[in-house]
Amino acid sequence: MVPPADAANERPIGIFDSGFGGLTVARSLIDLLPAEHLVYVGDTGRYPYGPRPADQVRKFAIEIADYLVTEVGCKLLVVACNTAASVALDDITERHDVPVVGVLEPGMRAAAQATRNGRVGIIGTVGTIASGAYQRLGASMASGVVAVCAACPGFVEFVERGETGSDQVHVLAERLLAPLRRAQVDTLLLGCTHYPYLARTIGDVMGREVVLVSSADETAFDVLARIERLGIDRQPGQAPSHRWLSSGDVDWFVEMGRRLLGPELESAERISVA
Ligand code: DGL
């Protein structure tokens, strides 16, 4: 049964990632849609998704999406994880009749707009790059953009440990980003929602003339457009509620998550998945 319009407007936006990375998107959503209720799931008990087989990531993503739509009653879903979106966005979209927004297409669009020399670097997890999703997206955009893709194994683990500016991550970045420097990209799409937390290191290594693009803001603009078009946006009034769920250590999730997202992350609840 379709709920009355005002009830639909009051339902939260659901958003998930393997861990803290989706908080970059949550930040943009809170800033751009300050009236909306939000429920965030960080699957920190099972991160990282990047090195896992595609079938397993798809299973995890479907489980969380089902939970957010069926049990929480979310009105829209944001798959704020490139690794999950690259292998499960279509499955999730087919399973549910709420709008589902991913992070790949908005990020790619922004990168294609930002490039001046037509050479766009895309970095992501092993799973994202191996899925070929960005390569397909780049080819389908027909904008004459050359996409140079590179996996960056290890970046996510540094972020999850809270080590975003260490010498070790700098050394790793020098090694992993070298092919992109050689390819002379002028724009680098951070194709993993964890990577904006490493923007300083990545920017230092790539050089100031390379534009770094994160999908967070573009994704939030897509969400805004979708909910306005459907007339399910929540009107400003009573303060929105934000719920933060983690499948791992909840105290660590609050401590680290608050540092990364900001004061809205006051407390977290444990979610048991699988
Ligand atoms: N934030 C996820 C992404 O965008 C991280 C992946 C991981 O858990 O490896 O791909």
Give an overview in words.
The mean pLDDT is 94. With 274 residues, the protein is an alpha/beta fold. Helices cover 48% and strands 16% of the residues. It is globular. It is built from twelve helices and ten strands. The strands form two sheets. Strands 4-3-1-2-9-10 form a six-stranded parallel sheet, sandwiched between helices. The chain has a four-stranded parallel sheet with strand order 6-5-7-8, sandwiched between helices. α12 (250-261) links the parallel β9 (242-246) and β10 (269-270). D-glutamic acid binds next to α4.
Kindly list the characteristics that best describe this protein.
single chain; 274 residues; alpha/beta; Rossmann fold; 2 domains; six-stranded parallel beta sheet; four-stranded parallel beta sheet; 12 helices; 10 strands; binds D-glutamic acid
Total DSSP E strands: 10
Uncertain residue ranges? none
As a percent range, the share of strand residues is 15-25%
Oligomer: single chain
State Rg.
Answer: 18 Å
Largest sheet: 6 strands, parallel
| Helix proportion | 40-55%
Distance separating the two termini: 28 Å
Classify the fold: give the CATH topology of the largest domain: Rossmann fold
CATH class assignment of the largest domain: Alpha Beta
What general outline do the C-alpha atoms trace?
Answer: globular
- Spatial arrangement of strands, main beta sheet: 4-3-1-2-9-10
Question: Which cofactors or ions or other ligands sit in this model?
Answer: D-glutamic acid
Category by helix and strand content: alpha/beta
Q: Give the overall pLDDT as a whole number.
A: 94
Number of helical segments with 4 or more residues: 12
Count of separate structural domains: 2
Going by CATH, the architecture of the largest domain would be 3-Layer(aba) Sandwich
Please provide the ordered H/E string of secondary-structure elements: HEHEHEHEHEHHEHHEHEHEHE
